[in-house]
Structure formats: structure tokens, C-alpha cells
Amino acid sequence: MSSKIRLGILGGGGDSLIGVLHRVASSMYDKYQIVGGVFNPNWENNISFAKTLGLSENRVYIDFDAFIEEELKLPVSERIEVVSVLTPNFLHFPMAKKLIENGFHVICEKPLTTTLSEAKTLESALKKANTIFAITYTYTGYPMVRQMREMIQSGVIGDIQKVDIQYYQGWINPILLDKSLRKTIWRLDPEKGGVSCCIGDIGTHAFNMAEYLTGQEVTSILADLNTRYDDNPLDVDGTILIRFSKYVKGVIRASQIATGEENGLEVKIYGSKGGFNWKQENPNYLYHLTDNKPLQVLKPGHAYNGALSLNGTKLPPGHPEGIFDSMGNIYYGVAKAIRNEACDSGEYPTMHDGVRGMKFIEKCVESHKSGNIWLDI
Hints:
alpha/beta; 2 domains; five-stranded parallel sheet
């Protein structure tokens, strides 16, 4: 029997981008072996896709309930150990809850759930189960994001003064322009996507990045959201003012109708002694700004980087690493936690981060609907 961690996957079949990302990421450090799962609610598509992965048919299940029932019949030494939940948002809660209650470790796509109440229920269940739970805020896995975190926390740029994080996409714009298409996208359906589209999908990434990098928690927000059309119930754009404390403030700007934009996550953090600038679309360059020195450019793989960054760097300097590597680093951190190996607190986002994300989403929607007012998180 392989010593690799036995991994099951829910969702992510066919041409799913998220599915490919997680499967490749899980293979990077040779820590996991995909054993089975439920990849599609249609049985024929499910089993056909599983065959393309070379999986045994007896570990591919007709639905989630069968997955749980049949896996629990197996000896612990053969049973799937950790399950990746890659389904639409509304399925995260029921699946994660049942997995936690039955002793499985979980790697869940974000947002954690569709409501804060569900998120808190999962948090309580996890405390009782004492298993590992990770939520895939993918961008925390980039080596230069991790380097930025270490440098900020060691005081390189001094006391934080300003946080400005932008996440602009344009993919939903052509769909939104066509009224007949708006009802076909699950992210625009409150029953499946939750109370928010844009903020729930990408705004929460920006929020997580703000707290991950600064080591501080946002205390209050003021949100101005945009649905663009009266018949569209969920936001597709938003600007959120954030406060960490009386003198530490910032802004999160998120949009999925930024025409022509691809995946424009950009981080700017300024302290009393310097600042950082990082862009997801060019992730191997971390720009360090100061008042009295020329602009410095840091890149991954060099000895001047810290342990957290180097631990997530797989190639020599000058060899570009990207989104697959970032997700792979999160899977690596989870593997270490499952095997009770030493693991830095910055190696994978936890249940706490998922709950924080849900608080942010709900407060943004509430702030907007209440007339764009300040609300405590």
C-alpha cells in the first residue's frame, strides 16, 4: 500500500478549471494519491471521467451519500483520508459537515459556505472532530506572497499605514450584457452562489490577502456594491473601505465587469518605512519601495528569501512558477499537518480564515443594503 495520503475529490470533473488545478497541485510534492470520489452528478460522465484518471471503478460513487457510506465500510488503512470539495458554493456546507462528522480531513474551495451561520456550524463541528481543514485561498501559496508576509511581520516596512488590494476580472461582462444568459450562471443564482457573486468569489480573496499579509484582522468595513442591472440579484462589482484600527485603513476593489481584465489581483501595502507591490499576473516579482533607496525587486528561489518562501519554491531562480505551484504549496502544507509534521502557520488557510471570509461577505452585503454604512466585523 502506498504511503501517500489517500485523496478523494467531490466535483471538478470534465473541463473544470478548478478540478485541473487541484489535481495537478495534489501531485506536486508526491504526497497524495487520488483514490476516488464523485466528479459529476451524471453517472455516465462521472465514471467516464474517472476512467480518464485511471481510477478503480469501485472507488467512484454515484453520489455523495454513497461515497460516505461505502468509504466508511473500508478498513482505516484503505479509506480515503482527505477530501477536496470542489462543488458549487451551496454544496460546500452539507458536504463539509458530513465529512468532518465522519472523521475525514477536508480541503474546501472558497467561499467556505453560503452563510455565516453555516460557517460557524462547521467551525464548531471541526473543534469536536479535531481533524485538518483547509480552505483554498490559493494566492497565499505564492512564494513571493509568503516572502512579503515574512518581511512585513519582521518589521521591514515598519508599522502598516495603508492597504490597497484590487482584484479585477472581466469574464462575467459578456454574460451580463445578454439578459437571456444571466439566469444560466450559477454564480448569479442566490440559491447556489449565496448572497454575493463578486465579493463572495474574488473579493473574499482580496480580504484574505489583507489579513494574511498584515497579520492583522479587519475590524470594520463600508461597502458600495453594484449589480449593474435591476433583474440581477447579486453584486458583480464592489468597492469596500476597510479599517484595521483607528490609523490603519485601506480599500478593497473587486470587479467581474472590468472589461478586458483577466485575473488582475494586485496588492499594495505601505508602512512607515517602506512598501510592497505584487501582481498575481506577474507573481515572481515582489517590489520593495522605500523613501531613501532605489526600488528593489525580489524574486523566488534566492537565498535572501525566508524559509516560508523557499519552502514553497520548487525551481531554481529564473524558472517561472504560477497558480498550479501556489495551490500545490497549500496542498503540501495540508499534507504536513495531516502527517503531524512541523508546519508554518502561513502554509495553508484554515477554517478560521473561511469563517472570517463569510463574515466579510455578509457584512459587505449588509453595509450596502443599509445605505453604505460602517459595520463592525
